[in-house]
Write a structure and sequence with these properties.
DNA-binding; transcription; alpha+beta; Metalloregulator ArsR/SmtB family transcription factor; HTH_ArsR_DNA-bd_dom; ArsR-like_HTH; Arc Repressor Mutant, subunit A
C-alpha cells in the first residue's frame, strides 16, 4: 500500500446504500478498495495499534504513548501508522513535536456493514 493515495470505500448501487456480502455481488472497484483496507488490518501490530487508538479515552492518543507498547523501533511503528492512515482507518494531527491519532469511525462502520448479515437472515434465538 505504500506510495498510494488513501483508500476510499466507494459504495455499490444507490448512494447511502451499503450492500453486504450476502445481499448483492460486489463490484470489482469496491472489492479492490475493501481488500486494501482489510490488508491494512491483516497485521497483528496494526490491529493492536488500531485497538489502542480506538479504545483510548478521549478518542485520540499520542504516538509517544503508542511506541513504548511495542518491541519495535519508532520508524517501524510510524510505518504501520502510515498504512492505517492510508487505508482511511485513522486520522492524525500534529501538535508541536507530537502526532495524535484518532479512529475514523466512518471507515470501520462501513467495514462492519459489509460483513453484517441483514436482520432478516439472522436466525432467532430463544
Amino acid at each position: 500500500m505504500s506510495k498510494q493515495e488513501p483508500v476510499t470505500l466507494a459504495q455499490d448501487g444507490a448512494e447511502g446504500c451499503c450492500p453486504t456480502l450476502s445481499t448483492a455481488p460486489m463490484s470489482e472497484d469496491r472489492a479492490v478498495g475493501l481488500a486494501k483496507v482489510f490488508k491494512a488490518l491483516g497485521d497483528p501490530v496494526r490491529l493492536r495499534l488500531l485497538s489502542m487508538i480506538a479504545s483510548r479515552e478521549g478518542g485520540e492518543i499520542c504516538v509517544c504513548d503508542l511506541t513504548p507498547a511495542f518491541d519495535l523501533s519508532q520508524p517501524t511503528i510510524s510505518h504501520h501508522l502510515k498504512l492505517l492512515k492510508q487505508a482511511g482507518l485513522i486520522g492524525s494531527e500534529r501538535r508541536g513535536t507530537w502526532v495524535y491519532y484518532r479512529l475514523v469511525p466512518e471507515t470501520t462502520d462501513k467495514l462492519a456493514s459489509v460483513l453484517a448479515r441483514p436482520a432478516a437472515s439472522v436466525p432467532a434465538t430463544s
